[in-house]
Design goal:
There is one protein chain. By secondary structure, this protein is α+β, with helices and mostly antiparallel strands. The protein has one domain: Gcn5-related N-acetyltransferase (GNAT) (Aminopeptidase). 27% of the residues lie in helices and 41% in strands. A seven-stranded mixed β-sheet has the order 1-2-3-4-5-7-6, with helices on both faces. It is globular, with a radius of gyration of 15 Å. It holds the Pfam family Acetyltransf_1. Keywords: Acyltransferase, Cytoplasm, Ribonucleoprotein, Ribosomal protein, Transferase. Its EC number is 2.3.1.266. It is an enzyme of class 2 (transferase).
């Protein structure tokens, strides 16, 4: 059974472990800790009692930015990324956001396909944005207009 719950500080060591296994340029613990403030909305995905993935997003006025969405390497290819992305978009809508932004490594074809399937469109490129142990890589900037119900506008 899949369950999505808010990220807590107690889960940061497990999140950090997944991040270090899966990310091109892993975040530090202090960066994760800085995302626990009130204007962020961060969630973890549990499957059969195992933490399998997470996302970190921030709301500023009526826009949201997806900063990080990661699925543990041994859990990839099971639709968990799509589950997390859909949850993030629903959370953004519930918070009254009209636009969602994200950046993705130019070579991350699986993530780009996921974002395009959800309706995101390419809006720009940031040269040499990501710096990892194997060099630098461009980021693609993608955006999505959300339709917010009239009850929220």
């Amino acid at each position: 059974m899949r369950t999505i719950k808010p990220l807590t500080a107690a889960q940061l060591p497990e999140i950090l472990s997944i991040e270090q296994q899966a990310a091109f340029a892993p975040w530090s613990l202090s960066l994760f800790e800085s995302c626990l403030s009130h204007d962020y909305f961060n969630f973890v995905l549990w499957v059969e009692g195992k933490l399998c993935g997470y996302y970190l997003a921030q709301q500023v006025l009526d826009e949201a930015t997806l900063f990080n969405i990661v699925v543990a390497p041994d859990e990839q290819g099971k639709g968990y990324g799509r589950t997390l992305l859909q949850h993030m978009l629903e959370q953004a809508k519930q918070r009254g956001c009209h636009q969602v932004w994200l950046e993705v490594r130019a070579s991350n074809t699986a993530a780009i396909a996921l974002y395009k399937a959800a309706g995101f469109e390419l809006t720009g490129r940031r040269k040499n944005y990501y710096q990892g142990s194997s060099g630098t890589e461009d980021a693609l900037v993608m955006g999505l207009q959300l339709s917010v119900s009239s009850a929220q506008t």
